[in-house]
Amino acid sequence: MNIDALIQYIISTPLVWLILTLGSFKIGIIIYEKFNKHTLLQPIVISYLIIMCTLIFTGVSYEEYFKSVEIIHFFLGPATVALALPLYNNLKYIKSLFLTIIMTLIIAGTFSIMIAVLMLWILDAELPTILSMTTKSITAPIAIITSEQIGAIPSLAVGFVIITGIIGALLGTTIFKIMKIKNDTSKGFALGLISHGIGTARAVEISEKAAAFSALAMGLSGIVTAIFLPLILEFLF
């Protein structure tokens, strides 16, 4: 009984979950580097698996866990702002590609959403599920707000966001090799546009230019989706 009480005390202490989160990501980095940065061993994936298994084993809900690590969530803001540095360093180059960037954002962003929605429609998914998929390629905080506005399921929308980010980070490099894409600008923009923050973390490893265009794509995609998706759906329905 004393052991059970001790375990219960430990898992109810916020510091434990904070240490677990940071520690699991560090373990992910060690494994990633140990295996020569293998695509399937992204640090974010390893840390997800460790945290998820721990939550399942201890029976702690995600809400309890998230409340314990809110300080990490708070620092996501400053971390996102820090992405402005590579953007600033490549500002002239970005300006020279302004029209190309806008066209790619609209065409690729729209096509990505349509393909996902079409797949769910073919599988006879319910409307709230389909709507939840439309925010899959924008960062989680924006996806939550947007999904609430369009009548989707926020928790499901976040799930799609995480899955999309992981898949993009895992398969992005392989797809670039198959398609023989060597330009860091193209790689970065694709990762940011499709896989938001997780893709941007992968782009940082490629180069500063890739990181800059990934951050740009992630920001623009989030803004455009948050503004126009509710308007388009309101017009259609």
How is this structure best described in words?
There is one protein chain. The protein has 237 residues and is mostly helical. It folds into two domains: 1-74, no CATH class; 77-237, no CATH class. It contains 14 helices and no strands. It has helices spanning 2-11, 14-34, 43-58, 62-68, 70-74, 76-82, 84-89, 91-96, 98-122, 127-133, 140-150, 154-178, 184-206, 208-236. Helix 9 (98-122) packs antiparallel against helix 10 and helix 12 (154-178) crosses helix 13.
Could you give the topology of this structure?
Layout lengths: L1 H10 L2 H21 L8 H16 L3 H7 L1 H5 L1 H7 L1 H6 L1 H6 L1 H25 L4 H7 L6 H11 L3 H25 L5 H23 L1 H29 L1
Helix pairs in contact: 2-3, 9-10, 10-12, 11-12, 11-14, 12-13, 13-14
Q: Uncertain spans, ≥5 residues at pLDDT below 50? A: none
Summed up, the helix count is 14
Helix content: over 70%
Supply Rg: 19 Å
Strand content: under 5%
Query: How would you sum up the major sheet?
Result: none
Q: Provide the residue-averaged pLDDT.
A: 84
Helix/strand-derived category reads mainly alpha
E-strand count: 0
Number of domains: 2
- Morphology call: globular
List SSEs in N-to-C order: HHHHHHHHHHHHHH
**Cα end-to-end separation:** 57 Å
Structure described in brief:
The chain is built from 14 helices and no strands. By secondary structure, the chain is mostly helical.
Which descriptors would you attach to this protein?
237 residues; mainly alpha; 2 domains; 14 helices; 0% strand; globular
